[in-house]
Design a protein that fits this description.
Elements lengths: L1 H11 L8 E4 L9 H13 L7 H4 L7 H13 L5 H16 L10 H10 L3 E5 L5 H10 L4 E7 L12 H10 L6 E5 L2 H9 L3 E5 L6 H6 L4 E3 L2 H12 L3
Parallel strand pairs: 1-2, 1-4, 2-3, 4-5, 5-6
């Protein structure tokens, strides 16, 4: 772990390793919601003649829904649509998602957050979602763990992941620099956004994509469940 942290500090020419906050993505990190999102993307876009496979949906995870739709329409139909049209299509996707069974918490994520808080760090959330019901659920399910003043949603940014803006906003809310910030992600675009913001990024591969996809986005560490992160936490947090 010391070599991983040393490589991180060297890559950014950072002065020290001083973790103070951990920023969590939501889908696939806090909740096992990506299967629901994947089927909702596939079924809703099919109504508009847009093809996106369920596995393919994971490649767009973390990106704002309107941006995903505009990208798909341009690639597959060769036309650019405005935000209002994309938002209407996204409402259809949201209807499909709302009809899905409620997603469970990712196993071990609360234990990990409890360990982080015991270690004296703060916990924040950086999600591409703007749906109030989902955001309210986070504050209920992770009460006493997630800091409400470190909560970035689609409503706080003008550019979603893979743009670094969401994580830059998260650091601004937390009052931290990149070498004081750890990100927990599961999506390629989320990892790309976090690394572009300069953060130490742990990729927890909870989906069907191979580890290589996350490593290619320069994740500092790739693991396969939250228990692995909890076990590594003392060595991760040890100041270097």
């Amino acid at each position: 772990m010391e070599k991983i942290k040393e490589a991180f500090l060297t890559s950014g020419s950072y002065p020290a390793w001083q973790p103070k906050v951990v920023l969590f993505d939501m889908d696939g990190v806090l909740y096992n919601s990506m299967p629901n999102h994947a089927s909702s993307w596939h079924n809703s876009m099919k109504e508009y003649g847009i093809n996106i496979s369920e596995e393919g949906a994971y490649m767009y995870e973390g990106m704002r829904g309107v941006e995903v739709i505009k990208k798909l329409v341009k690639e597959q139909k060769g036309v650019e649509i405005d935000d209002a049209t994309a938002a209407e299509m996204y409402r259809k996707k949201s209807e499909y998602y709302a009809a899905c069974k409620k997603a469970d918490l990712i196993p071990g994520v609360k234990n990990l957050q409890e360990a982080i808080v015991r270690a004296g760090l703060r916990v924040g959330v950086v999600t591409g979602s703007g749906q109030k019901t989902l955001l309210d659920r986070i504050l209920h399910d992770f009460r006493g763990l997630v800091s409400e003043d470190i909560f970035v949603t689609a409503n706080n940014v003008t550019k979603g992941k893979p743009n670094p803006e969401p994580y830059l906003v998260g650091m601004r809310m937390a009052g931290t620099s990149p070498w004081q910030t750890i990100v927990v992600e599961n999506a390629p675009l989320g990892v790309r956004a976090a690394k572009a913001a300069g953060c130490f990024t742990i990729a927890v591969n909870t989906g069907p994509l191979p580890d290589s996809v996350l490593l290619n986005e320069r994740a500092d560490l790739v693991v396969h469940n939250m228990d692995e992160v909890t076990a590594l936490l003392p060595s991760i947090l040890k100041q270097y």
